[in-house]
């Protein structure tokens, strides 16, 4: 059996990349979410968690020993240097986790879903990049409705992500997700049929 080629799937916060990813899995495509890999590498008992607690102090841990993501997020969004320190610790570990999962995939192509596909350099693990794209006002509207957070918080997250232009520059394919869920599913199916015709991610 031939090794699957890897599609990178990305999009800004509130773009609908998770909904798109979910539909790809319904079509039988193996997929790993970089956010899930990021959670696995900081589980209790893993070396990364001990390093984080040592660096930031015990207040970034919950009483049960799990990472307190909220406390850590506050620290790193206020301090660029701390964010870089954390990224340099976690990105290589997340990369290893992703690679080992993708190596076991059995569909004709496999997907790496990552909000930071471009910024983290994870797109180098892929042969093709699909960007789920929406105008910024829709990103804000959808994320505020979904997460019940302020516009300021969302804008802070947006500023830490690649700009829409940067993402689109790296894209081989763009899925414009500015309509309803049925449209999104049709677009995913159209892309899926196209991807099944590709070898190594190239036409």
Task: Give the arrangement of secondary structure elements.
Blueprint (H helix, E strand, L loop, with lengths): L4 E6 L6 H10 L3 E4 H7 L6 H10 L12 H10 L1 H23 L6 E5 L14 E6 L2 H12 L3 H10 L3 H7 L2 E4 L4 H15 L8
Overview of this protein structure:
The protein is α/β, with parallel strands linked by helices. The chain has two domains: about 1-30 and about 110-203, P-loop containing nucleotide triphosphate hydrolases (Rossmann fold, 3-Layer(aba) Sandwich), CATH 3.40.50.300; about 35-105. About 50% of the residues lie in helices and about 10% in strands. The chain has helices at about 15-25, 35-40, 45-55, 70-80, 80-100, 135-145, 150-160, 165-170, 180-195; strands at about 5-10, 30-35, 110-115, 130-135, 175. Strands 2-3-1-4-5 form a five-stranded parallel beta sheet, sandwiched between helices. The longest helix has 23 residues, at about 80-100. The chain is globular, with a radius of gyration of 18 Å.
How would you summarize what this structure contains?
The chain has 203 residues and is of the alpha/beta class. Helix content is 51%, strand content 12%.
Biggest sheet architecture: 5 strands, parallel
Report the sheet-strand fraction. 5-15%
CATH topology annotation of the largest domain: Rossmann fold
Radius of gyration: 18 Å
Number of domains: 2
- Structural shape: globular
Count of DSSP helices? 9
Low-confidence stretches: none
User: Mind telling me which CATH architecture of the largest domain this is?
Assistant: 3-Layer(aba) Sandwich
Q: Mind telling me the CATH superfamily name of the largest domain? A: P-loop containing nucleotide triphosphate hydrolases
């Amino acid at each position: 059996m031939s090794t699957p080629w890897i599609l990178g799937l990305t999009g800004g916060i509130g773009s609908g990349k998770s909904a798109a990813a979910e539909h790809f899995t319904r079509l039988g495509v193996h997929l790993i979410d970089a956010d899930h890999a990021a959670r696995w590498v900081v589980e209790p008992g893993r070396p990364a968690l001990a390093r984080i607690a040592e660096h930031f102090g015990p207040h970034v841990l919950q009483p049960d020993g799990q990472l307190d993501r909220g406390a850590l997020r506050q620290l790193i969004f206020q301090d660029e240097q701390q964010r870089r320190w954390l990224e340099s610790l976690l990105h290589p570990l997340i990369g290893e986790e992703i690679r080992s999962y993708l190596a076991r995939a059995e569909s004709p192509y496999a997907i790496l879903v990552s909000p930071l596909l471009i910024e983290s350099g994870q797109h180098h693990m892929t042969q093709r990049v699909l960007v789920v794209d929406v105008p910024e006002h829709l990103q804000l509207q959808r994320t505020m409705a979904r997460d019940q957070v302020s516009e300021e918080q969302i804008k802070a997250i947006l500023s830490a992500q690649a700009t829409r232009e940067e993402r689109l520059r790296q894209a081989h394919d763009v899925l414009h997700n500015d309509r309803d869920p049925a449209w999104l599913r049709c677009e995913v199916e159209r892309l899926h049929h196209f991807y099944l015709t590709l070898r190594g991610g190239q036409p």
